Amino acid sequence: MDERAYAIMMRMTIHPLFLPILFSIVLSGNISYYALILSSLIIHEVGHIIAAYLCGVKVERCVIMPYGGEIELKGNNSIAPKKQLVIALGGPVATICCIAATPFLDPLLAEPVLKIQIVLLGINLIPIWPLDGGRIIMSLIHIFYPRIRMVEFYLTISLILIAISVFITFILLPKSLFLLVLSIFLFLQIVNEWRFRKYRFAFEKHVIKRLT
């Protein structure tokens, strides 16, 4: 195996939140479906990693999440917004490539692969931080309207939407248990981003000013 590819794979880990899903799928006996989901998530993250590599940004670690993944980039807050946009688009582009490849697969394999890719793409393009859709919007904000009020407004909207998701999934228990846990997890991540928004924004503006 190429040393670079090996290094990429060595950086990948699975978040504990994803383990109960895998465990339930294994218990159901549908191991092949589990393999397709995991493979799809890895391909999605490889798309981000390739985009980061093309932008000259080093990937420290990649964590596979139920909705896709999180990649830790070296100098994350100092990365130019345009590069952040390209990296955020890398995962969805990889998933779209998988969708485009399904007509060439065996019909028995093509249907589940297509369903998995559509769900994965749909979830990741939801415009809520820290999903890919949210990262794309945040990058565009930093490119075209770099104001802390705009960042705060966007994070507030994300917080409200995910809070509504938590409420709805709670009402629909027990069928929505996984979605509830995922919504709470995203809610906590948005809260964390909100707490440090001013510091990160000030640092990013300082770095961008130095680069220009």
Q: Your description of this structure?
A:
With 212 residues, this protein is mainly α. It has one domain (3-211). Helix content is 71%, strand content 8%. The protein contains nine helices and three strands. It has helices at residues 3-10, 19-27, 31-54, 81-101, 107-124, 132-144, 148-171, 177-195, 197-211; strands spanning 12-14, 59-65, 68-73. Strands 1-2-3 form a three-stranded mixed beta sheet. Helix 3 (31-54) packs antiparallel against helix 4 and helix 4 (81-101) runs antiparallel to helix 6. The longest helix is centred in the first third of the chain and has 24 residues, at 31-54.
SSE arrangement:
Elements: H1 3-10, E1 12-14, H2 19-27, H3 31-54, E2 59-65, E3 68-73, H4 81-101, H5 107-124, H6 132-144, H7 148-171, H8 177-195, H9 197-211
Parallel strand pairs: 1-2
Antiparallel strand pairs: 2-3
Strand order of the largest sheet: 1-2-3
Largest sheet: 3 strands, mixed
Q: What is the overall shape?
A: globular
Average residue pLDDT: 81
Question: How much strand content do the residues show?
Answer: 5-15%
Structural class by secondary-structure content: mainly alpha
**Regarding quaternary structure, how should these chains be classified?**
single chain
Domain count: 1
If you compute it from the alpha carbons, what radius of gyration comes out, rounded to the nearest whole angstrom? Answer: 18 Å
Secondary-structure element order, as H and E?
HEHHEEHHHHHH
Poorly predicted residue ranges: 5-10
How many individual helices?
Answer: 9
Distance between the termini: 40 Å
Helix content: over 70%
